[in-house]
Amino acid sequence: MSSWTELLERPEPKQHVVQLYGRDDQLLTRHVGQYLAEGLRRGDGLLLIATGAHTEAIVRGLEEEGGAFAAAALAGRVLVLDAEATLTRFLVDGSPSWELFEDVVGTAVRGLHAHVPGRSLRAFGEMVGVLWSTGQTAAAVRLEEYWNRLLEDHAASLFCAYPIDVFHGECETDEFTMLAAAHTHVYAAPRTLFASPARSAPG
Question: Mean of the per-residue pLDDT values for the chain?
């Protein structure tokens, strides 16, 4: 199995990794920055859908790459969206609508691809974590399924995150089992990396 660093720096199309970060969101933002910064250097499109605090930290790190981030944004290679606001655009009675999700997020993905012909897209999505942290676990699992459906049609990889501490009994649920199975790899920061038995390889 690939190392976590390899998964972040050289993701395969349809790769869908998740980091369970507990209270250490600094480690999360560092890893997201690593994933997106490498995409920036490789000419990939970047989609960032995060909470306000995490967006600020991630973008600050990317701006330290010199003028590359600003130039990529001006060229249409970067799109930054707010996780909570974006969620409201496709939730219906508390559950994600595929048609609305495809219209909102699918349109964003297609727009980025139009600006990076022949290149891949790297997305970080925190909307699932927002749903999970507010007790909407079934909606979070459904949204993961929609992301995978979208990945099937695009040259893209996805990194998502949940504020779950697996070492303090926060994941003993059927929903968590379904959540893990929706990903190709699960990283329980800072010690554990495993491939999902259901989706152990992109394809």
Answer: 90
Mean pLDDT of 43-68: 93
**Tell me: the pLDDT tens digits for 125-164?**
999 999 999 999 999 999 999 999 999 999 999 999 999 8
Residue corresponding to tokens 């130039």: 71
CA distance 153 to 172: 33
Question: Which token pair is 6?
Answer: 């390899």
Q: Which residues of 51-86 are buried (b: 16+ CB within 10 A; e: fewer)?
A: beebbebbbebbeebeeebeebbeeebbbebbbeeb
Question: Per this entry, what is the length of the chain?
Answer: 203
Residue written as token pair 């909407």:
136
Give the Å distances, CA to CA, from 127 to 10, 84, 86: 23, 7, 8
Give the number of other CB atoms < 10 A from CB of residue 107. Answer: 10
The pTM of this model reads 0.91
Domains of the chain and any CATH numbers: 4-195 (3.40.50.300)
Nearest to 78 by CA among 113, 104, 54, 107: 113
Mean pLDDT, rounded, for 84-100: 97
